[in-house]
Amino acid sequence: MVTGLTDAGWALFAPEKAVSDWAGAARAAALERVRDPEEQARSLTCEGTWFVGVDCLPNDARGAVGQSGPLCGAALTAAQRIYGQIPLHRAQVSVIYPGYPRPRDGEDDAAFRYRLSRDAAHVDGLLPVGAGRRRMLRERHAYILGLPLTGASPDASPLVVWQGSHHVMRRAFAGALGGIDPRDWGDVDLTGIYQAARREVFETCPRIPLAAEPGAAYLIHRMALHGVAPWGEAAEAPPEGRMVAYFRPELQDIAGDEWLRLP
């Protein structure tokens, strides 16, 4: 069991050579995708300061990309020990550039202020649905695994996580979803519950920036509130930006209540 993941909602793993080698191969493959005009049209937003890169990395179900071999390392081992051998999807390649954030396409003033002042903090899998953009649980992730692909200074838009926020969120979601067939959870409007829980998190949970170098990894609880900090005035990163690969494999059984359980 990873104590940090259970108690704090996150765990940072020290650099390992095998992970560093994987990150080098993944970076080379990711750069090809990031530079592809069609991928740029799909993924580049926030006035050119964020490449979203969902499903961008051409890895297989074991995480192998190019000549890297399967993804390994302490972080993935810890996740698999807790959640089992879930196949890996094509990783997101999130790239942040100097000047982030700028308003995202279609983002109104209130949403941009939230991005700027609250790091666009969110829980993954609660997607905006319909014209009213009501938040519903449409993706049930097992965990979030972040793997830096480029070096950058700690103030170069690091991932931030609110420590212990997964406990607040779990209580809120359990109250809203308890007694409802898990197969129907995706149709429950969680907007009000979600917004109230976020306010509680901002008032009670410390905000922790997680900066790491290639070869390191961070494991985040699926219900932890997290986001991306603004680019610091003195931040430094290579020309290709601050690049991180994220795996969020989805739980296989939506008929059970596993998503609501800890860790």
Q: Return the structural class.
A: alpha+beta
The total count of helices amounts to 7
Task: Evaluate the radius of gyration.
Answer: 18 Å
Helix content: 25-40%
Strand order of the largest sheet: 1-10-7-12-4-3-2
User: Do you know the CATH topology?
Assistant: Jelly Rolls
In CATH, what is the class? Mainly Beta
What characteristic shape results from the CA principal axes?
Answer: globular
* Average pLDDT over all residues: 96
> How many strands, which pairing sense, and closed or not: the largest β-sheet?
7 strands, antiparallel
Number of strands: 12
Whole-Å distance between the termini? 9 Å
Q: Approximately how much beta-strand content do the residues carry?
A: 15-25%
Number of domains: 1
CATH level-two architecture:
Sandwich
The residue ranges in which pLDDT falls below 50 over 5 or more consecutive positions are none
Order of helices and strands: HEHHEEHEHEEEEHHEEEE
Topology:
Elements: H1 3-7, E1 10-13, H2 17-34, H3 37-43, E2 44-45, E3 50-51, H4 74-83, E4 92-96, H5 109-118, E5 126-129, E6 134-137, E7 143-148, E8 159-162, H6 165-177, H7 191-204, E9 207-210, E10 217-221, E11 226-228, E12 242-247
Antiparallel strand pairs: 1-10, 2-3, 3-4, 4-12, 5-6, 7-10, 7-12, 8-9, 8-11
